[in-house]
Structures are given as structure tokens and as C-alpha cells.
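in:
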């Protein structure tokens, strides 16, 4: 079993291996003192793994209830969050109890935000079951729900007590969902690791997932340790997301997946940056070749002026401008501060 340690306001371990779901009870019991558990999951994940998780927790002597909500980004809302609060209250949950997020990014974000705010904060554990959540969203303590104004605009920093990545849970993903998560993997190679980028480009991805996941979460753990509350270096993790979130908003968070949108954002920004001499010639082509290998899109038909407008709702926006992430080369990235006029010019918007 691979173990990556996160050092933040709360220190915790990320466990990576095959077969960990059926051991989650003993692993959680060894990491926390809580004896009452609420497993929070969506209806898709529940069909495959809900009962297995409950059985493993109960076999470790823990008392378990389960809350299931409809899958999809639309459930990352205040309406579902309030129903989860009511469920916890009705079941008598206190600050000495524990939430377990079993699922992908939506489940992790919603459960984490509930844990951050219910009774002013209780512990939670992440058991991510998608590529995206295993390599990215389950680590680092960012929790949130969406509002009509944009994605992840209401949330809190709340670190989990443990992250359990069972690689076997990726076997039930459709090719589209697997590809969706690979956008975040490519992101880590682009912003911080030419070595990871080379592995993704030249090796078989699925047969190297243990190593790939470990490399991604190690990068994120280092970034979180340096900038837990997203005031500096952690902004690099937003590569592709400013435009990606704008694309998602255009489709009302239902017509395109997060990873597909981020892939388009990464490619678009890199092509623009290369055209302006901000990265070496050929950088965008190398990125596009890898995105194509991962079955990810690179372009969109949405007019750039519309994406510009929607991207102004990004969390990296300030009253004076916006921070965007540029990869100066494969494995190297910087936070680039722009006024809104400079950003419009960067995108070619008049």
C-alpha cells in the first residue's frame, strides 16, 4: 500500500492500493475515534459500492447509516445540502461522529461542506471512486456547493481525516468518466511534473494508475502544505479551470463534464500563450497529443466573448483583475495577474 502524508492544519494520510474498500472499516477505525458513521453517496455509486462500504464499516464494530442522493453536478446544491443536514439531525449526529464521502467529486465536495458546517464542524473521511476525485478533489480540504452565480462559490476549507483510494473502484467507470478524470492528471503533469507528463505520453495509463495517482496526490499534498488556504501557489491547480468553469456554466453545469471542460481550457490557454511567446513553440501540440490519447476534447464552439463574461465569475477574480495560470513549459507554471482589459485582450475579445 502506498501512503502519502498531507501536512496542513490537520495532518492525514492518503492510502492508495487495490482492495481498500473492503478494508475501509479497519482503516477508518485506526485513524479516528468516532463510532457512528454516516456514509454519504450518490445513487450511481451506491449500486456498486454502498453496501460493501457499510458492511466493511459494520464489520469493524462501527454503527452506520447511509444517505443517498441523485448523481450529477445538479445535486451539489443548497437544497441537497439542507436535506443532508436534516438527515444528520434526525439521526442524532453530533460533533463526535463522522461522515464518509463515498463517490466522486460531487459527493466529496458536498459531504465535505456538510462536515465543515454541521454543528460548526465534524470529521469526515474521503473514499473517492473516480479518477478525478482520487487524484485531485478528495485531497486538500476544498469543499463547496454551486450557486446560480457560478461553480464552487460557496464553500469552506475543511481537511479530511483520511483519504482511501481503492484503485479497483475505477474499474466500473465508463470510458467517458475515466477520460473526464484524466484531465486533472494531465493538469498535474503540465503545471508541476515533466516526468509525469512523459509517463502519460509514452506509457500505458491504466496499467500505471497506482504510480500516476501517487504522483498526482504527492504534488497536491506539497502544494497544499505550502498554501493551504489558496492565497498563492495553490492557484496553480486552477490551470484550465478558469475557462473550464465558464464552459460548464454555459451548459448550465449539465451539458459537459468538468474534465472535458478543463481539457478545453488547458488547450485553449496554452495555444494562446504559445502564440504570444509565453511558452516554447510546440508546447500546445504536445499537450493536444496527450489530450487526444486520453480521449479528451480540445476545442469548443462557444464564442470567446461569452466565455470571457462567464469566466469573470471565477474565484480567482478580484476587484482589480483576474489571475490566470500559464504553463511556461511542460512541467512549469506561473500565476499571471491581468487586469480585465488585459485578460480580454489575451482571449482576443474586443
Amino acid at each position: 500500500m502506498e501512503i502519502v502524508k498531507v501536512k496542513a492544519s490537520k495532518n492525514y494520510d492518503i492510502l492508495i492500493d487495490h482492495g481498500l474498500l473492503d478494508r475501509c472499516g479497519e482503516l477508518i477505525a485506526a485513524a479516528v475515534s468516532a463510532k457512528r458513521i454516516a456514509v454519504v453517496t450518490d445513487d450511481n455509486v451506491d449500486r456498486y459500492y454502498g453496501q460493501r462500504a457499510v458492511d466493511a464499516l459494520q464489520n469493524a464494530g462501527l454503527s452506520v447509516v447511509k444517505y443517498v442522493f441523485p448523481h450529477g453536478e445538479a445535486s451539489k446544491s443548497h437544497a441537497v445540502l439542507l436535506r443532508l443536514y436534516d438527515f444528520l439531525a434526525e439521526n442524532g449526529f453530533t460533533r463526535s461522529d463522522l461522515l464518509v464521502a463515498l463517490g466522486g467529486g460531487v459527493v466529496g465536495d458536498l459531504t465535505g461542506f456538510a462536515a465543515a458546517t454541521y454543528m460548526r464542524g465534524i470529521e469526515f473521511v474521503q473514499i473517492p471512486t473516480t479518477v478525478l476525485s482520487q487524484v485531485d478533489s478528495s485531497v486538500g480540504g476544498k469543499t463547496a456547493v454551486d450557486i446560480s452565480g457560478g461553480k464552487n462559490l460557496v464553500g469552506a476549507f475543511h481537511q479530511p481525516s483520511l483519504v482511501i483510494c481503492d484503485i479497483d473502484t475505477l474499474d466500473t467507470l465508463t470510458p467517458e468518466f475515466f477520460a473526464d478524470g484524466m484531465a486533472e492528471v494531465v493538469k498535474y503533469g503540465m503545471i508541476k511534473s515533466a516526468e509525469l507528463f512523459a509517463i502519460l505520453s509514452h506509457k500505458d495509463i491504466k496499467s500505471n494508475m497506482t504510480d500516476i495517482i501517487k504522483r498526482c496526490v504527492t504534488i497536491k499534498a506539497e502544494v497544499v502544505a505550502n498554501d493551504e488556504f489558496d492565497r498563492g501557489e495553490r492557484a496553480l491547480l486552477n490551470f484550465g479551470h478558469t475557462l473550464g468553469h465558464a464552459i460548464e456554466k454555459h451548459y448550465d453545469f449539465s451539458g459537459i463534464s468538468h474534465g472535458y471542460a478543463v481539457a478545453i481550457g488547458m488547450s485553449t490557454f496554452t495555444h494562446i500563450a504559445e502564440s504570444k511567446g509565453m511558452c516554447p513553440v510546440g508546447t500546445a501540440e504536445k499537450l493536444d497529443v496527450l489530450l487526444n490519447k486520453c480521449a479528451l476534447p480540445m476545442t469548443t464552439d462557444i464564442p470567446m466573448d461569452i466565455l470571457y463574461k462567464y469566466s469573470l465569475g471565477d474565484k480567482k477574480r478580484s476587484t482589480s483583475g483576474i489571475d490566470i495560470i500559464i504553463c511556461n513549459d511542460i512541467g512549469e507554471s506561473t500565476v499571471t495577474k491581468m487586469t480585465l482589459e488585459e485578460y480580454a485582450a489575451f482571449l482576443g475579445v474586443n
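note: The mean pLDDT is 96.
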